[in-house]
């Protein structure tokens, strides 16, 4: 007997909820915002818009389906099942936050604030939920993801990009090389290394790409290819700047050996969920074998 599908609604606490939780009451939150030239009415309206979207999406889920509701902060503690259909209600970044915890489940992105969000990953409106759930999994875009695997088996997966470097603003020291590049390895001191996907080419990766003059061709979201950039490499008698950017097609890997006391790797801006690396450890970064299956 097969289980009925389970709809997992992923959302995040709104700014209004965070303000009231911090200041205690609506009035105190309003006073705080007014002292900084903001009106709580706009924040409260966005909150209500999100609540209405969640209610509309929930009512569109078939009665025979099971349901679960999940806040962003609880993603790393939730066990997704193969029969789940994940409905992300919120911003584009929330889809990226959820992607690293999935293993092939279809994802439906619902935009709660059209015009405010780019809508790259949250492509649909709440009113479309019922129709899309009826065909979920039948029409999906398989978006490329990036992974970092350390020599102690720690593994990190991201949809947009992975950053490797020092916590804070310290200099990262490491040795960098590419598999199959004749053993060429360069000692570097920099602000870290960024490796991104075609989906990430709409965000942080694009800003670095533009600063470098856009010489490399940005990958498409479904393309089996990454771009990597070393940020602010520093030339010295002991460190070089010849390996600072490039393409990374599957199955090639970018290899980094730590020469700092501590470096970190985190994905999609979630530094709170970082992999920690110590002196002498090696980490390899490349195209991930899993894809994000985003309902088109």
Residues in helices, as a percent range? 10-25%
Mean pLDDT: 93
What order do the helices and strands follow?
A: EHHHEEHEHEEEEEEHEEEEEE
Structural class: alpha+beta
Beta strands, count: 16
Terminal CA distance: 30 Å
Multimerization state:
single chain
How is the biggest beta sheet arranged?
Answer: 10 strands, mixed
Radius of gyration, in angstroms, nearest whole number: 21 Å
Key terms for this structure?
kinase; 21% helix; 10-stranded mixed beta sheet; 6-stranded antiparallel beta sheet; NAD/diacylglycerol_kinase_sf; alpha+beta; 296 residues; kinase activity; NAD(+)/NADH kinase; 6 helices; transferase; 16 strands
What would your notes on this structure say?
The protein is an alpha+beta fold and 296 residues long. It is built from six helices and 16 strands. The protein has helices at residues 15-23, 26-34, 40-60, 92-99, 129-134, 204-211, and strands at residues 6-11, 66-71, 84-90, 106-111, 140-150, 155-158, 161-165, 172-178, 185-190, 193-196, 225-230, 245-249, 254-258, 262-267, 275-278, 282-295. Strands 1, 2, 3, 4, 5, 6, 8, 9, 13 and 16 form a ten-stranded mixed sheet that branches. A six-stranded antiparallel sheet has the order 12-11-10-7-14-15, with helices on one face. A hairpin with a 4-residue loop joins strand 5 and strand 6. The radius of gyration is 21 Å and the shape is globular. The mean pLDDT is 93. It comes from Streptomyces iakyrus. Keywords: Kinase, Transferase. GO terms for molecular function: kinase activity.
């Amino acid at each position: 007997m097969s289980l009925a599908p389970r709809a997992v609604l992923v959302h995040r606490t709104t700014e209004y909820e965070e303000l009231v939780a911090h200041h205690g009451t609506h009035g105190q939150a309003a006073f705080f915002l007014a002292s900084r030239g903001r009106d709580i009415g706009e924040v409260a309206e966005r909150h209500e818009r999100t609540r209405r979207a969640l209610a509309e999406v929930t009512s569109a889920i078939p009665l025979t389906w099971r349901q679960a509701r999940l806040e962003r902060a609880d993603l790393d503690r939730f066990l997704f099942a193969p029969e789940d259909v994940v409905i992300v209600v919120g911003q584009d970044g929330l889809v990226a936050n959820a992607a690293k915890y999935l293993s092939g489940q279809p994802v439906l992105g619902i935009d709660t604030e059209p015009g405010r969000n780019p809508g790259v990953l949250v492509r649909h409106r709440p009113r479309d939920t019922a129709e899309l759930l009826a065909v979920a999994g039948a029409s999906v875009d398989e978006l490329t993801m990036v992974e970092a695997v350390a020599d102690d088996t720690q593994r990190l997966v991201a949809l947009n990009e992975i950053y490797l470097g020092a916590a804070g603003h310290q200099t990262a020291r490491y040795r960098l090389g590419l598999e199959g590049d004749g053993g060429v390895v360069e000692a570097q001191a920099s602000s870290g290394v960024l490796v991104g996907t075609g989906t990430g080419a709409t965000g942080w990766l694009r800003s670095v790409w533009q600063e470098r003059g856009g010489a490399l061709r940005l990958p498409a979201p479904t393309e089996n290819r990454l771009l990597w950039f070393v940020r602010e490499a520093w030339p010295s008698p002991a460190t070089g700047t010849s390996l600072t950017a490039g393409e990374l097609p599957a199955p090639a890997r970018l290899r980094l050996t730590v020469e700092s006391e501590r470096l970190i790797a985190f994905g999609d801006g979630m530094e709170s969920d970082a992999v920690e690396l110590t002196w002498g450890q090696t980490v390899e970064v490349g195209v991930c074998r899993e894809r994000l299956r985003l309902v088109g």
